[in-house]
């Protein structure tokens, strides 16, 4: 009841309110996944948010890692419950065997069957996605009072997968009378290395359901595709997102495939072909984020008129360079991977003081 304790987002300093706002937006975006898992809870009695020993009862770690939990069938979370030190929180995470786990906020694929020690900034979260998972999502929303005409199909790296999107009216008990639908979504790695994502015709019905919707297929942690076809027709790369098209965002290394006004009772098939020579993007998202913080802090303590060593801004701006020149994707990623481990030594040889050097290097070591 202390009047000085507040939880309204706008009462926090911008450094924190912006992060909290992003978390709330992510929670809204995950509603299709959450609603699908809530239906599974209704059918089975197994909670959406559950302790690890529900899924892994024979593993001792399922009991000793008491804070860790599953959020539905595909997401594992290890909350940070201790203060950070030098801007980072050190977290031990148990990753169960049986599949690999994709660290969502850093783009790192980690092997299952081990305990790992990871570092997180306040803007990053220990959320792990089962390798290959398909997570249905919404775009950025302010509320759920109106029907959402857009569905994002987020496909994560790591193998074949299948999920079923559950939908009903959302504001009545018609589901008790069978008024609901399921849409099966699959992702399969073909023998030639291409990826096929299939959205099957919707099964079931409920009053006032959408007859068509806009799809966006998101391929997280993906290298730049060579070509993409939608229902057998190759589509062009386009930053404008008009009609059937695709593009790529460098900040999160994600390919976006847009299919507007697709009938829900028709099959959608997207085939993504990749170049034979693929560069390594594992963990690159987290490295780019941390290099940006390091560079910003370095600039704040840099003498006016002097230029930063070229290797630093060149690597720091790689995400924008990828979007401006997607045809240079492979060479840009190689440049970043070669430059990143050299930057701490480059910073150490600059004129800034030891305190600044230590902080900048701490971000990226």
What does this structure look like?
- Helix content is 26%, strand content 28%.
- It is α+β, with helices and mostly antiparallel strands.
- The strands form 4 sheets. Strands 11, 12, 13, 14, 16, 17 and 20 form a 7-stranded antiparallel sheet that branches. A 6-stranded antiparallel sheet has the order 1-2-3-8-5-6.
- β18 and β19 form a beta hairpin.
- α5 packs antiparallel against α10 (354-364).
- It starts with 13 loop residues before the first helix and ends with a helix.
SSE-based structural type: alpha+beta
Spatial gap, N to C terminus: 43 Å
Low-confidence stretches: none
User: What is the C-alpha radius of gyration, as a whole number of Å?
Assistant: 22 Å
Instruction: Give the overall silhouette.
Output: globular
**Helix content estimate:** 25-40%
Secondary-structure element string: HHEHHEEEEEEEEEEEEEEEEEEEHHHHHH
Oligomer: single chain
Number of helices: 10
- Mean pLDDT over the full residue set: 95
Strand content: 25-35%
Summarize it:
The protein is of the alpha+beta class and 365 residues long.
Name some characteristics of this structure.
alpha+beta, seven-stranded antiparallel beta sheet, 10 helices, 365 residues, six-stranded antiparallel beta sheet
List the helices and strands and how they pair.
Blueprint: H1 14-29, H2 31-44, E1 49-51, H3 52-55, H4 61-64, E2 69-71, E3 75-77, E4 89-95, E5 101-103, E6 108-110, E7 114-120, E8 127-130, E9 134-137, E10 150-155, E11 161-167, E12 180-189, E13 195-199, E14 203-205, E15 212-219, E16 227-230, E17 233-235, E18 245-249, E19 254-263, E20 268-273, H5 284-300, H6 311-316, H7 318-324, H8 329-339, H9 343-348, H10 354-364
Parallel strand pairs: 10-15
Antiparallel strand pairs: 1-2, 2-3, 3-8, 4-7, 5-6, 5-8, 9-10, 11-12, 12-13, 12-14, 13-20, 15-19, 16-17, 16-20, 18-19
Helix pairs in contact: 5-10
